[in-house]
Design brief:
The structure holds two protein chains of two kinds. Chain A is mostly beta strands. Helices cover 0% and strands 50% of the residues of chain A. Chain A contains no helices and eleven strands. Chain A has strands at 5-7, 10-13, 19-24, 31-37, 43-50, 53-56, 65-69, 75-79, 88-95, 104-105, 109-113. In chain A, the strands form two sheets. In chain A, strands 2, 4, 5, 6, 9, 10 and 11 form a seven-stranded mixed sheet that branches. In chain A, strand 5 (43-50) and strand 6 form a beta hairpin. Chain A starts with a strand and ends with a strand. Chain B has no helices and eleven strands. Chain B has strands at 4-6, 9-13, 18-24, 31-37, 43-50, 55-58, 61-66, 71-76, 85-92, 98-100, 104-109. In chain B, the strands form two sheets. In chain B, strands 2, 4, 5, 9, 10 and 11 form a six-stranded mixed sheet that branches. The relative contact order of chain B is 0.35. The A-B interface holds A 4, 33, 35, 41-43, 45, 48, 56, 91, 93, 99-108 and B 4, 30-31, 33, 35, 41-45, 48, 50, 88, 90, 92, 95-103.
């Protein structure tokens, strides 16, 4: 596609429910990143994929967070048993796997946990 | 680990130059980036500089890098209302991880 797309654009869920956030990267981009942006905060790195493997999962806040990527393309970020502190905008970015790693960002998914 | 710091707010009069500053801690940083985020939108890469450069200019944008002081700045000449946004500094470290600052909100005064 023309750019990185994310769905849904907005998600409201009740505390304790599971949610899945989807990211469609730019075709041909082998690197894919997930970030979290809370109100008034910068971007918090969550996880990075190179192809289907995730060499760096160090940013995942807890074991309630997981992500997968299939076919070197679409990625899904899953949050289990959501908590109110999970409310944020979740941003996905993709890039070619070479320097300078120019990242192209999607519009984000705004997650609200009530 | 790498830490990237920016001031949170900057107000500039329309037509003046804006200078947004960023400091980082990892001296082995390779690429340094400036991203722009307009309200309700994702981040857009504005420009980047390789660590062996000290300046890069692109139309109204000038990036200055002082490696000794680990200081990066973004100058926007002739600031316009459309420049109102949050500007993020980001730094790539030796492990290829890109660390973002908290962003500087640029407010344009009439």
């Amino acid at each position: 596609g023309a750019g990185v797309s994310q769905s849904p654009s907005n998600k409201v869920t009740e505390k304790g429910k599971d949610v899945e956030l989807r990211c469609d990267p730019i075709s041909g981009h082998t690197a894919l990143y997930w970030y979290r942006q809370s109100l008034g905060q910068g971007l918090e790195f969550l996880i990075y994929f190179q192809g289907n493997s995730a060499p760096d999962k160090s940013g995942l806040p807890s074991d309630r967070f997981s992500a997968e990527r299939t076919g070197g393309s679409v990625s899904t970020l899953t949050i289990q048993r959501t908590q109110q502190e999970d409310s944020a905008v979740y941003l996905c970015a993709s890039s070619l796997a070479t320097w300078p790693y120019e990242q192209y960002f999607g519009p984000g998914t705004r997650l609200t946990v009530t | 680990g790498e830490d990237v710091e920016q001031s949170l707010f900057l107000s500039v009069r329309e037509g003046d130059s804006s200078v947004i500053n960023c400091t980082y801690t990892d001296s082995s940083s390779t690429y340094l980036y400036w991203y722009k985020q307009e309200p309700g939108a994702g981040l857009q890469l504005l420009t980047y500089i390789f660590s062996n450069m000290d300046m890069k200019q692109d139309q109204r944008l000038t990036v200055l890098l002082n490696k000794k002081d680990k200081h990066l700045s973004l100058r926007i000449a002739d600031t316009q209302t459309g420049d109102s946004a949050i500007y993020f500094c980001a730094v790539a470290n030796r492990d290829d991880k890109i660390i973002f600052g908290k962003g500087t909100r640029l407010h344009i005064l009439p």
